[in-house]
Design a protein that fits this description.
CATH architecture of the largest domain: 2-Layer Sandwich
Structural class: alpha+beta
Function: Catalyzes the phosphorylation of the position 2 hydroxy group of 4-diphosphocytidyl-2C-methyl-D-erythritol.
Radius of gyration: 19 Å
Number of helices: 9
Low-confidence stretches: 298-303
Keywords: ATP-binding, Isoprene biosynthesis, Kinase, Nucleotide-binding, Transferase
CATH topology of the largest domain: Ribosomal Protein S5, domain 2
Number of domains: 2
Helix content: 25-40%
Family: Belongs to the GHMP kinase family. IspE subfamily.
CATH class of the largest domain: Alpha Beta
Order of helices and strands: EEEHEHHEEHEHHEHHEEHE
Bound molecules: 4-diphosphocytidyl-2-C-methyl-D-erythritol, adenosine-5'-triphosphate
Number of strands: 11
Largest sheet: 7 strands, mixed
Catalytic activity: 4-CDP-2-C-methyl-D-erythritol + ATP = 4-CDP-2-C-methyl-D-erythritol 2-phosphate + ADP + H(+)
Enzyme class: transferase
Strand content: 25-35%
Mean pLDDT: 95
Length: about 300
Amino acid sequence: MDTITQFCPAKINLFLAITGRRDDGFHELVSVVAPLAWGDTLEVDPAADGKFTLDCDDPAVPRGEDNLILQAARAFATASGWRGGARFTLTKRVPMGAGLGGGSSDAVGALRALNELAGAPLEREALAALAARVGSDCPLFLYDGPVVMRGRGERIDPLSDAGVARLRDRSLLVFKPAFGIGTVWSYQQLAASAPGSYLPSADAEERLAIWQADASASAEALGFNSLERPAFAKFVALPVMLAKLQREHGLNARMSGSGSACFAWLSPEADAEAIRSTIRAGWGDTAMVQMTTVRTKSAANPH
Ligand SMILES: C[C@](O)(CO)[C@H](O)COP(=O)(O)OP(=O)(O)OC[C@H]1O[C@@H](n2ccc(N)nc2=O)[C@H](O)[C@@H]1O
Ligand SMILES: Nc1ncnc2c1ncn2[C@@H]1O[C@H](COP(=O)(O)OP(=O)(O)OP(=O)(O)O)[C@@H](O)[C@H]1O
């Protein structure tokens, strides 16, 4: 069989309300998440020896059993009973510790490819349940467009057509300082200042419903992220940069997920080069700056 190539998009959380903590330690959330046109590439080749192995062009990516690709592969083998092997080759573009879901997306790319290699033993629902076990951010990547994510990340609905239309074809700038932020740390900080750090779920749903119903609402108007407060308190380079981008370029930039990556919607008149220079002047040349768009697909035809 030929190589299967999976595009593994990055994601941004346009809206991320953490609404409370569950007994199992995970948090409940309401989030609007969009996959991007930019991401990693995962090539998957069948391996006759029945083993799973991983190569990656980025030496910083863990290559052992803690890699989410290999974890997803083991989980797939257990759930499907498939006894084949695969050689994974990952071209890594999405930085780690960014809140861009890179590892989760790679894991879902692996699940999709293995299911194809194995002759589709798992239906969509079984694949979604498996993805949820691999990581909270995984199920959203089984959709190819913007979604509303609830629960701890396992409940996914496509975003309404009206909502998707506000994101389609808009230029998006994603940027990240050299440092990353750990997801576990972010949630711990939130829990430490509970309950004030949580947005009640009724409030979160109301904000989302108002945005969906308002035909004149922009993508920017949805911007909210509960995890900004703990991140900004410790990593002051983030709010300083966002304030500078607001002042100098009129941008309403936000952090994605648990950070440290941030994003801003650009108007057609925006001077992307000047914005890039502002970011590099403040965060240095090791800062990542990436222009992209959202990957959209109609809610009426999500699959
Ligand atoms: C911040 C987000 O990126 C927003 O989309 C996600 O909620 C993070 O999802 P993720 O990185 O896939 O997270 P997981 O690998 O499932 O969990 C890592 C850790 O994050 C915390 N965690 C994660 C998701 C969630 N809904 N509640 C949590 O409290 C838990 O401490 C967990 O042990
Ligand atoms: N395929 C993978 N690519 C990147 N990191 C991986 C992968 N598999 C496991 N990891 C581990 O997961 C950690 C988090 O990486 P990831 O790219 O998912 O970042 P994140 O921005 O924290 O994600 P999220 O948006 O889900 O919070 C890394 O520090 C790394 O140790």
